[in-house]
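Lecture notes, part 5. Sequence design as translation. It can be helpful to think of inverse folding as translation between two languages: the language of shapes and the language of residues. The source text, in structure tokens, appears below.
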């Protein structure tokens, strides 16, 4: 019997916390050219320096260069393959007799 008023107060207090704050608007970025991405992927020293600048001094670097460096880093890491990931089967389907 004592729990009902406590639960009521708790629910009343929690209902006031349901105020949502709108997310900040993120400006759309332009897609960097594929030539720039390829050039950065071929030059690992420039890519490394540009990635460092994008992390440490974001306000001094153009957004397109940071996007291109991110795409180039992904391209270097993932490779050129367009094929989907196909896991190697653990056991062969037809074991040798």
């Amino acid at each position: 019997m004592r729990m009902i008023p406590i639960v009521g107060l708790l629910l009343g207090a929690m209902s006031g916390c349901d105020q949502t704050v709108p997310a900040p608007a993120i400006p759309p970025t332009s897609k960097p050219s594929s030539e720039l991405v390829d050039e950065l992927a071929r030059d690992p020293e420039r890519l490394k320096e540009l990635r460092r600048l994008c992390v440490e001094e974001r306000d001094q670097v153009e957004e397109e260069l940071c996007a291109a460096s991110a795409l180039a880093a992904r391209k270097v890491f993932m490779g050129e393959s367009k094929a989907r990931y196909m896991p190697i089967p653990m056991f062969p389907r037809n074991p040798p007799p």
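The translated text above is only one of many valid answers, since several sequences can fold into similar shapes. DSSP finds four helices and no strands in the chain.
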